[in-house]
Structures are given as structure tokens and as C-alpha cells.
Write a structure and sequence with these properties.
Organism: Xanthomonas boreopolis
CATH architecture: Beta Barrel
Strand order of the largest sheet: 9-1-2-12-11-10
Shape: extended
Strand content: 35-45%
Number of strands: 12
Order of helices and strands: HEEEEEEHEEEEEEHH
Protein name: Pilus biogenesis protein
Number of domains: 1
Pfam family, one: CheW
Number of helices: 4
Oligomer: single chain
CATH class: Mainly Beta
Radius of gyration: 22 Å
């Protein structure tokens, strides 16, 4: 008499013998991947390693005496974090908040920070052959945070460094 474990092993062996093998996904060594989003008229991407998560806009409690780009403090699963209007910080114009608004959560020394964006595009992948000079994408305040870009079809995407943003003294000093 076979034990229940031996019977299950037999099922597994027969199942695997008939399983269709999925092709292995081959990623080019020169493939760059990130999260795509829009701030104002700029299409931007940030490295996956810089974006901790993407969540719906949490309820925000305003902070008196803060810079106008600091919308307040949000709470995600019991963790408090600042919520920053990225467009207001970069361009001086407030993001129009809407139902279904998403925020990017980035990590910085001292805790996470939520960044509002105008539109989320999701995962984007680019090959090195698609690399271009950032040009207009890196004008104004963006020049400090965008040092390269990619072209995909007719769209240009600036690579926005969230790690540089988190180390910027002005960003770290939110008191008005």
C-alpha cells in the first residue's frame, strides 16, 4: 500500500511529464526598465529601484507653515509620510487632484515620501538604441534631475532621478 505522500509524488511526476514548458524570457543586457508617468507636459520614467510602490492618493492632513508643494502628511498601513506635489515643486504649478489619483512612493533617508503625478503610465522598457539627448525634457529645474532620455515611437521619456530629488536640500527642507 502506498502512502498519501507517495501518491502525491506520482501525481506530480505525471503532471510535470505532460506540462508544456514556457519559453524563457530573454531580456537584452542593454534593456532599461522603469515606471512611466507624466508631470505637466513631460513624460518621465524613474528606475524601478527608486519607486517603492504606487498607491491611491491617501487622505492628507495639512501641515501648518509648510512649503506650498508639501500637501501634508498621509498614512499608509500605519506609516506616516509627507505627500509632495511634484509638479508644484518642479514647476510652481499645482497638480489637479482627481478621483483615482495615484502617488509614487519613494524612499529617502528618514522614511518614505509620496509624490503626486499627473498621470501614471506603468512599466516602460527601453533599449540602449532608443537613448537620446534629453534636450527640452531637461530644461529649467528638471536639468538637475534628468541626465538622459529615451525615444519610444513618437514619445520622448526623460529619466527622472528620484534619488537625486531626495538629496536636494530644498526638497529636504519643507518648512516655509
Amino acid at each position: 500500500m502506498r502512502s498519501p505522500f507517495e501518491i502525491l509524488e506520482g501525481y506530480e511526476r505525471r503532471s510535470l511529464a505532460h506540462a508544456v514548458q514556457l519559453p524563457e524570457k530573454q531580456f537584452a543586457a542593454d534593456l532599461w526598465r522603469g515606471v512611466g508617468y507624466r508631470v505637466g507636459t513631460r513624460r518621465l520614467v524613474s528606475d524601478f529601484r527608486e519607486v517603492v510602490e504606487i498607491v491611491p492618493m491617501p487622505p492628507v492632513t495639512p501641515v501648518p507653515g509648510a512649503q506650498p508643494w508639501l500637501l501634508g502628511v498621509g498614512n499608509l498601513r500605519g506609516n506616516l509620510f509627507p505627500v509632495v506635489d511634484l509638479k508644484q515643486f518642479m514647476e510652481g504649478r499645482r497638480t489637479v487632484l482627481h478621483e483615482g489619483q495615484r502617488v509614487l512612493i519613494m524612499r529617502q533617508a528618514g522614511g518614505d515620501v509620496a509624490l503626486t503625478i499627473d498621470e501614471l503610465y506603468g512599466q516602460r522598457s527601453f533599449e540602449q538604441a532608443q537613448a537620446i539627448e534629453p534636450g527640452e525634457l531637461a530644461q529649467g529645474r528638471y536639468a538637475h534631475f534628468i541626465d538622459r532620455a529615451f525615444r519610444s515611437d513618437t514619445q520622448e521619456w526623460g529619466v527622472f532621478s528620484l534619488s537625486l530629488l531626495s538629496r536636494t536640500p530644498e526638497f529636504r527642507q519643507a518648512a516655509a
